[in-house]
Amino acid sequence: MRMLEVRGVSHRFGGLIAVDDASFEVGQGEIVGLIGPNGAGKTTLFNLISGALRVQDGSIRFKEEDITELRPDQISRRGLARTFQTSKLFDGMTVFDNVRLALIYGNPERRFKYEEAEREVNQLIATMGILSDRNKPVRELPLASRRYLEIARALATDAEMLLLDEAMAGLTTAELQQVMQRITQLRDRGVTILIIEHVMEAILGVCDRIIVFHFGQKIAEGVPADIAADPTVRSVYLGDDT
Amino acid sequence: MLISTILSEEKPALVAIPVTIAAFAIAPSTLPESIGISLITVLMYTILALSWTMFSGPTGYISLATAGLFGVGVYTTAFLRDSLPLEAVVLLGGAAAFVVALTIGLLTLRIKGVYFILFTFGVAALMRTSVQWWETHINGTVGRHVTAATNETVYLLLLIIFAATLVAAFLLRHASPGLALLGIGENEDAAEHVGVNVTRLKVLTFAASSVLMGMTGAVMATRFRYIDPSIAFNPLISFLPVLMAILGGVSKLYGPMIGAAILVALQEFLITEYPYVYLLIFGLTLVVVVLWLPGGLVELAQKGYFRLKIQWIKLRMRLTRFRRTRQAKRR
Predict the structure, then answer these.
(1) Burial (Cβ within 10 Å: 0-12, 13-18, ≥19) of residue B168
(2) B192 touching A, CB under 8 A?
(3) Residue numbers in A near B185 (CB within 8 A)
(4) pLDDT digits over A10-49, tens only?
(5) B56: which residues sit within 8 A by CB, 6+ positions away?
(6) A238 touches chain B (CB under 8 A)
(7) Per-residue pLDDT tens for A134-189?
(8) What is the rounded (10 degree) CA torsion for B198, A139, A88, B118?
(9) Per-residue pLDDT for A210 more than 70?
């Protein structure tokens, strides 16, 4: 089944075309990577899909429903959640409350009451391996735990699909392995994932399919092995001119 | 379920809330009359500071529209005092403030930070001058006489509004919307992306807390007896609750209440003793609070308690060490 369908989406900031006629699809249960040099329009694309920016041109469908005109909160309640490149956590609140807020508001149909969420919250933060940080204020967390919390909070909205914006930036190799493993586990539980990443070993190892952007345009799409071998991709992104 | 959780987590509050209300209820008959009179002012500002904190505390949106919403209540009474029972007038004052606050809320949807502060201040000023213009040009009057109510009636009505405010503020803190408001204050984008309809929540909370301000204005009009736009929409009514809430601290419910009590006492003292420099000293207090007490008295007290505790532990450790060495020497 098709989870996400982006059709002819463009976005300009003044004279700059950040995203230029982008079209692609993501199927259910897939992990798709979105790569490209800085300024290629990847995060703008995430902002358009998640509703943070209004779509100027084209259309976006999620689970066969047109979500082009919806607000971020409406999109999130439909099961499409995201994380942020520069983490946007509720820094003054505890890890527990960060996740609890998403759990209560992410899908009102589950009707979680303020005081009932405990078991579910514990489960979610345990899945991400940060149960021991449960009652800490978020501003005291180390970087890796912040990344996990971003994912846990997005999942808490009852997400069927996650948009991960550089969830692995700044992590050590060991932490990287762990995040990749947890992302794969999420997929095995049926969550569809679209991921922006600069760490090439991560993206090549974890993705089923990779889409390459350059100056707002899609320049390639395929399985990791093909993408890694593609001469155009190598020249614009991997900086290899052989 | 909510009740049972609150019972287990918030035992002190469940005692403190009824005790506070009861204390205000018996205060006029037990305190000397000179203090009893200023209790009305204390109660009025406590309600304003608490209801201001309901919206502005968690979200960090500093509203200076309080005088406008209070003034709407005052004028509701000025127009309707002699044609309806006072209780009905007070409820209508709250309803009128709700409608005005909804309008302000819908106009300020996309405004944040200092722009929001300025806008709300401007709205209150605009309301004041509009009413002034309307009264002088259309009605041919400057002010209006309001049939007075007895001190007991005023106090009782304020007490009921205060009880409602305290309970509402407490429940808001222990329910999902309260958590979502905190989330908006921490990071509005993120709150929106986890499914909070931030616009609706902000506007509704702002309007709901304004009901309490409007009702308070409606009651106070009967005490002012004579009102005009500069009394009803006095800018100090916008500033003082903010100052009180910041002085006391917005992280706990009793913060704004303590702040209101202290500042009203200070104000009464300064007005009688130093009438010419009272606003000057008052302004200095604001500067001191903002510069050195950003968390308010609540945080100061918590820090002080924490330090005392550390000193106490250190003292006990020293004592044990001292005893041990003495014992060792004896041997």
Answers:
(1) middle
(2) yes
(3) 92
(4) 999 988 899 999 999 999 999 999 998 888 899 999 999 9
(5) B62, B63, B242, B245, B250
(6) no
(7) 999 999 999 889 999 999 999 999 999 999 998 888 888 888 888 888 899 999 99
(8) 50
(9) yes
Q: How far is A117 from chain B (nearest CA, A)?
A: 11
Contact status, residue A242 vs residue A66, Cβ threshold 8 Å:
no
Q: Which of B1, B109, B194 to mutate to test the interface with A (most CBs of A within 10 A)?
A: B194
Question: Cβ contacts (< 8 Å) between A84 and chain B: which residues?
Answer: 189-190
Q: Where are the domains of chain A?
A: 1-76+194-242
A100 neighbourhood in chain B, CB within 8 Å: 179
Contact between chains at A93 and B193 (C-beta distance less than 8 A)? no
**A93 and B187: CB-CB below 8 Å?**
no
Say if residue A239's pLDDT is above 70. no
More confident residue, B105 or B10: B105
**pLDDT of A93 above 50:** yes
Residues 148-177 on B with a CB inside 8 Å of A are: 174-176
> B2, B193, B299: best mutation site toward chain A, by most A Cβ within 10 Å?
B193
Quote the pLDDT of residue B1.
Answer: 41
Is any Cβ of chain A less than 8 angstroms from the Cβ of B5? yes
Cβ neighbours of A89 in B, within 8 Å: 186-187, 190
Please state, for a pLDDT cut of 90, what percent of chain B lies above it. Answer: 60
CATH class of segment(s) A1-76+194-242: alpha beta
ipTM (interface predicted TM)? 0.90
Q: How far apart are CA A53 and CA B321, in angstroms?
A: 65
Residue of A nearest to B58 (CA): A92
Strands (E), A139-230: 161-165, 192-196, 209-214, 217-222
A97 and B179: CB-CB below 8 Å? yes
Average pLDDT over residues B33-47: 87
